[in-house]
Design brief:
15 strands; 8-stranded antiparallel β-sheet; globular; 5 helices; Jelly Rolls; 273 residues; alpha+beta
């Protein structure tokens, strides 16, 4: 079992929400933006009922067998996709891979996670979210085809604490990162922190509303989420998120690679499928 964190009173900071007409400007100027669920639905063309219907899928995730800290607190599923215009295309099952420069704990190896369920991939509002994220990426980087990855996460308190980002504060080596909160149940902690890449500023807040989202221009900021604990001693809770990453130019290459820590991004290749 992981060692419990010391008990202490912590204030929950409210998210610095952007409005739908200013979030792209905020994202471009400061490297991140946070949107409430109503704005997500309006911008993505998704429905409240459709998004709520996705949430039970997080009860069917598979254990993450690759955690190097010995924990049992993370369950997940993984999918790859392309978006070109309004066309969302599912990509055949493939591993998730990151270079060590971006994930010192779990990088440098192919991780074959359980795939996202076909019924989830077929949901209209799932695909609406991916189309919207591609439009956001177009606004930042110019219109182009996007190859992305989607990760369903559940972090729970099986081990006493659960670590949403066991690798610590990090970047993902892509152009756009989106982290949707799907659910928080009977937990404390799970604070989001966004740091300037080359400065002293840090933004702290806690996402609580289902389907609110944090958008990150990954080359400009570093991010993490703090550990979670049960809200009550002896209790059990969890935090569910959907994380999506979109790199310009293609999928992050798998296999051995000497990624330079001097570079602001990784090398990508287009997936032929």
């Amino acid at each position: 079992m992981l060692t419990a964190l010391p008990a202490r009173a912590t204030a929950m900071f409210l998210p610095p929400f952007s409005t739908p007409d200013q979030y792209l400007s905020d994202l471009a100027q400061r490297g991140f933006a946070v949107l409430p669920a109503a704005a997500v639905r309006a911008l993505a063309g998704a429905g409240a009922a459709g998004l709520a219907a996705l949430a039970p899928d997080w009860d069917q995730l598979a254990p993450d067998e690759y955690l190097k800290d010995g924990g049992r607190y993370r369950q997940r599923r993984h999918a790859s996709f392309t978006v070109q215009g309004d066309a969302v295309q599912d990509v055949p099952y493939r591993p998730h891979w990151q270079p060590l420069d971006y994930n010192a704990l779990h990088g440098g190896m192919e991780r074959w996670f359980a795939p996202v369920a076909p019924a989830t991939l077929a949901q209209a509002d799932w695909r609406a979210l991916l189309r919207w994220l591609a439009r956001v990426a177009d606004a930042l980087q110019g219109t182009q085809p996007w190859y992305g990855e989607a990760h369903q996460f559940r972090i729970d308190t099986t081990d006493g604490i659960g670590r949403p980002t066991p690798e610590g504060a990090h970047r993902d080596g892509v152009d756009l990162v989106a982290v949707f909160l799907v659910a928080r149940h009977a937990i404390k902690g799970g604070e989001t922190r966004v740091f300037e890449l080359d400065g002293p500023k840090v933004q702290r807040f806690t996402l609580e509303e289902p389907w609110s989202v944090l958008l990150l221009q990954d080359a400009r900021v570093i991010h993490e989420s703090t550990p979670i604990q049960p809200a009550e001693e002896g209790g059990h809770g969890h935090r569910d998120t959907l994380a999506a990453t979109l790199p310009a130019g293609g999928v992050l290459d798998t296999g051995p690679r000497r990624a330079s820590s001097q570079t602001a991004r990784c090398t990508f290749r287009m997936n032929p499928h």
